[in-house]
Amino acid sequence: MRIFGRVRHRPSPTWRQATDRAFSLIGDGRYEDAGALLTRAADMEPWLSESWYNLALLHKFRHDWEQARTAGLRAVALLDRDSGAPDWWNLGIAATALQDWPLARRSWQAYGLRLPSGSAESASEEAVRLALGSAAVRLSPEGEAEVVWGRRLDPARIEVLSIPLPSSGRRWGEVVLHDGVPHGERATAEGSAKSVYPVFDEIELWAPSPVPTWLVLLEAASAADRDALERLAADAGFAAEDWSSSVRLLCRTCSESRMPTDDGSATSRDPHDHGEPGHPGHLSHHSAGSLWVPERECGIAAPAALVRGLLDSWIADSPDTRDWRDLEEVC
């Protein structure tokens, strides 16, 4: 087979050595040095799709989306198979980061995904939208990682539906770009059936949310009182989450495996967790057994003009069993 006038063959030992060394450097975070080696490898074997795939991957790690798109296009031009190549998936991520929707559509379709049909004009102007259901995303995977629940908008974007802790720097309603390979799963049980959801790693923030995060201490006599605040916030188009019961601390190994949500039973709230290095054990913030603790640490995602009104309305519905104090904007 001839490509660009050259007979295609297996990459040379020098190419393999340069590539292997480059990925060792990537693992150490030495992207500049790795880039020099991968560029040299592409110069040695420019007719290999792997040369350009590796460069596109490096640019993805660096969040250099223009370069990732350029290298990705060269990689897919040299592919010798019709669909399913990871080259197309990485190109789809780069195109999504750049909001290059025609290229994103082309990439997902070439990978083998079915996309909704539409006019050519709308396909050129509108974002890719697919009904891919729920998933979890690990925010800040290289730092103080936190796994939250969200809704997949397309193969590379998730809208955050949990209220992240302030340490993550993320807000409810934000859209994050995520990688294609899941790291871990979350399992929920509903009756006799069990649903398993992938956990994807965040790459970067794709669309910020204007809605601030508030921390408030509640006095809720029962779980029903707490649930009433969550419903009230949801009815207003925003969110409240009882962090005292929904947050748990996991080691990194556990976080990247299949974990049940809370005790594995179905709940009205999707718990999120922190993936920490080492193996300190499982620390849960919810009350043990059936014992209810009235004082709750709650996160609220709502505009400043609305949050106090929400809390006051919540109290007004049952003043003998509810109270709040120490409201603070935290993110």
Automatic annotation (TrEMBL):
Stored Gene3D superfamilies: Tetratricopeptide repeat domain (1.25.40.10)
Region of interest: Disordered: 257-287
Compositional bias ranges of the Polar residues kind: 257-268
InterPro entries: TPR-like_helical_dom_sf
SUPFAM superfamilies: TPR-like
Domain of life: Bacteria
Bias-annotated ranges (Basic and acidic residues): 269-279
Protein name (database record): Tetratricopeptide repeat protein
Organism (species): Streptomyces fildesensis
Lineage per the UniProt record: Bacteria, Bacillati, Actinomycetota, Actinomycetes, Kitasatosporales
